[in-house]
Design brief:
four-stranded parallel β-sheet; Rossmann fold; 15 helices; alpha/beta
């Protein structure tokens, strides 16, 4: 998708956060601390969109002002901060109605975008596949459609800067009828691409391969872990939402069976459900997965809250009952005594790794092997004729031989084999049927 300005120029932005008293995200957490954490995350999002954060304003209120969110007095303060920091855009940490957005823009005399529009902007930067670009454009048009009425000032600014990438000025100035027509055409194109992707998925499933999907909060290190496990070359970036398009690679486990591993988009707090459609392709890989591998940045002090947000998205996708393996990443950033305390106090069901250094990856592969519910591994003791080269090659190629001994014209074998391979071998007279 074409950007409307040079990536070298950085817009100066002022961040505005709003916290509601008695609205802490976690039990025992101070609501102002929660609001500050959210504002810090907004700053990372803004930097991922190529902005320069010039300053921030945080307000704590008992209730949201229905007209301007922050109230008239705070609007004057924000306008003064905009002028003092020479900010070009105000980014609001929350989702605004069209009326609130217009009132804020009039009050601060500056373009105002909200959290949703900022995330869509980042999606527009990172979508590389044709489907990903179409999904971003569709989400942007659906978001902007109710904001067209009575917003001629806003339209005159569209097509340049943060929050306006993707469709661009020409598309955004179309009337409602033309926008709806474009939305329908995009929807039809996405459905066609979705059917093609489903056919490819069915072709993969013709062979009994399980699929494991990496999920987690944005910037948890999923792509680094994906590359370390699969020897792939997926983009790794500290910026949020660096991965938007799905990537699937084959992975060989210690039992010698093959599974498919998929890298997915990172989740984030307060993600509007409407935005889930903007990366439906990658979420379909999650919904089709036999095993969910939930990756957490253990070095992030806010990781318990991030895990809660990931659980919430998985519930929205009706995936919370799927088999799950929890992987704590970035242990190389912890002090040894801190790591020792965590590993001793946490459940043995968890795995602790460093995707950057490779620490813990052999154990992760072993645990993936154990947890994968598709085509489970069984242990067999059997005999095969030495002349049956095809069967012997299948055993060594698809299983893990534990013991073998030649007796005359046969080979006695004890091996761990995928159930599908064991079923094929049981057609041989020397292999036990049960």
């Amino acid at each position: 998708m074409k950007e409307s300005r040079s990536t070298k120029s950085q817009e100066r932005v002022l961040l505005v956060g709003l916290g509601l008293k008695r609205a802490a995200r976690l039990p025992g957490q101070d609501s102002s601390a929660s609001a500050r954490e959210s504002l810090a995350e907004l700053a990372e999002l803004a930097r991922s969109a190529g902005a320069q954060v010039a300053g921030s304003v945080l307000q704590m209120r008992d209730a949201i002002d229905p007209a301007s969110v922050v109230g008239r007095g705070k609007l004057d303060e924000i306008r003064a901060e905009v002028q003092a920091h020479q900010a070009q855009v105000v980014i609001f940490d929350g989702n605004l109605t069209p009326g609130q957005q217009r009132n804020l823009e009039r009050g601060v005399d500056c373009p105002v975008i909200d959290r949703t529009q900022l995330i869509l902007d980042i999606f527009a930067r990172h979508a590389r596949s044709r489907e990903g670009q179409l999904q971003v454009e569709l989400a942007q048009l659906n978001y902007l459609l109710p904001r067209l009425a009575g917003s001629t000032d806003q339209l005159s600014r569209l097509g340049g800067g943060i929050g306006t990438r993707g469709p661009g000025e020409q598309k955004l100035e179309m009337d409602r009828r033309r926008i709806r027509s474009r939305v329908k055409r995009i929807g039809d194109s996405i459905e066609t691409l979705s059917r093609q992707r489903e056919l490819r998925r069915q072709a993969r499933q013709a062979v009994p391969l399980g699929t494991a999907a990496l999920v987690g909060y944005t910037n948890a290190g999923k792509s680094t872990l994906f590359n370390a496990l699969s020897q792939a070359n997926v983009l790794v970036s500290p910026k949020m939402f660096a991965t938007l398009d799905p990537t699937v690679r084959a992975l060989r486990l210690p039992s010698n069976r093959r599974v498919l591993l998929s890298d997915t988009v990172g989740f984030i707090r307060d993600l509007p459900k409407g935005l889930l459609a903007a990366f439906r392709a990658t979420l379909e890989e999650v919904q089709q997965a036999s095993l969910i591998v939930q990756v957490t940045d253990i070095s992030d002090p806010h990781h318990p809250e991030q895990e809660t947000e990931v659980d919430k998205v998985l519930r929205d996708l009706a995936m919370d009952d799927r088999p799950r393996l929890h992987v704590y990443n970035k242990i190389d950033r912890l002090e040894p005594d801190v790591l020792a305390a965590m590993t001793s106090s946490n459940s043995k069901a968890n795995v602790y790794v460093s995707a950057a250094t490779g620490a813990g990856l052999p154990e992760l592969l072993r645990r993936l092997d154990q947890a994968m519910p598709v085509d489970p591994v069984v242990r067999l003791s059997f005999s095969l004729p030495l002349a049956d080269g095809r069967a012997l090659a299948m055993v060594h190629g698809l299983g893990r031989v534990l013991r073998s001994k030649v007796r005359g014209a046969v080979m006695e074998i004890e091996a761990d084999l995928p159930e599908s391979v064991a079923r094929r071998l049981r057609e041989n007279p020397g292999v036990p049927k049960n």
